[in-house]
Amino acid sequence: MADKKTPDKPKGKGRADTGLKVRVKTARGRTASSTRWLQRQLNDPYVVKARKEGWRSRAAFKLIEIDEKHKLLKRGQRVVDLGAAPGGWCQVAARITGSTPTNPLVVGIDFLEMDAVTGVTFLQKDFLDEDAPAALMAALGGHNPDVVLSDMASPTTGHHKTDYLRTAYLCEVAAAFAVDVLNPGGSFVAKVFRGGTENDLLALLKQNFAQVFHIKPPSSRQESVEMYVVAKGFKGRRAAPEADGDETG
Length: 249
Ligand SMILES: C[S@@+](CC[C@H](N)C(=O)[O-])C[C@H]1O[C@@H](n2cnc3c(N)ncnc32)[C@H](O)[C@@H]1O
Prior knowledge:
It is a single chain. The chain has helices spanning 32-43, 45-53, 60-70, 88-97, 132-139, 160-181, 199-208, 243-248, and strands at residues 79-82, 106-110, 120-124, 147-150, 187-193, 209-215, 226-234. By secondary structure, it is an alpha/beta fold. The protein folds into two domains: 17-53, no CATH class; 60-234, Vaccinia Virus protein VP39 (Rossmann fold, 3-Layer(aba) Sandwich), CATH 3.40.50. Strands 3-2-1-4-5-7-6 form a seven-stranded mixed β-sheet, with helices on both faces. Strand 4 (147-150), helix 6 and strand 5 form a beta-alpha-beta unit. The termini are far apart. S-adenosylmethionine is lined by residues 56-57, 59-60, 83-89, 109-112, 126-128, 151-154, 170. The site of S-adenosylmethionine (SAM) has 23 residues, from helix 4 and strand 2.
């Protein structure tokens, strides 16, 4: 596994080489779209690199790249990873924070199963369940996290508007959770779809964090509509202005 500080530099304009090297023959029982998917996987340099370096997913590189740019994760910090399976982001977070089985600092949640990641407490649970926030806090031993990450994505329906709204909703709930539990100075990262963060959510983040950015890491497929919102410098619950009261009062 590569040191996260020195991952191999992607080739050519900051991106990995995308030259097609492996051709997949169509096989009986395999649809044309699954043949295309397999061909893309086999030829995706980030998939190859993830396998070689021991990352659970190519998504690990997205967090590595976001963190290299924004310096969010630090040793000793507590991290919550929403939508954690198969575990790439958990691996990155555990490695940087120095989380161990005796001093676990990272908690992941997903409704899918996930093989254990060293130093990570995993909850197989729907984050949208009412008791999920309490379960996450209990798993953190009652300590507030310094970083809340969300790579959650709903299974795509192919209907763009539905997929956009579902992901936007997941991001909104993740942001509300972050604002409820983060330590002052903490950070929040979440997947959003192109077009960025919904206005209300962006306003919430700007109100509660010192800085808000959007980023499309080089390892995020160019054709994918995903990007990430990064909010840094959580102001703390008391510092948030009482805008609601002012406006409605
Ligand atoms: C893109 S994957 C995450 C990949 C992960 N960051 C990694 O590096 O391996 C998105 C995950 O979000 C999960 N997810 C979506 N909605 C969720 C929810 N409501 N509660 C928990 N997990 C959810 C999915 O099951 C899926 O595993």
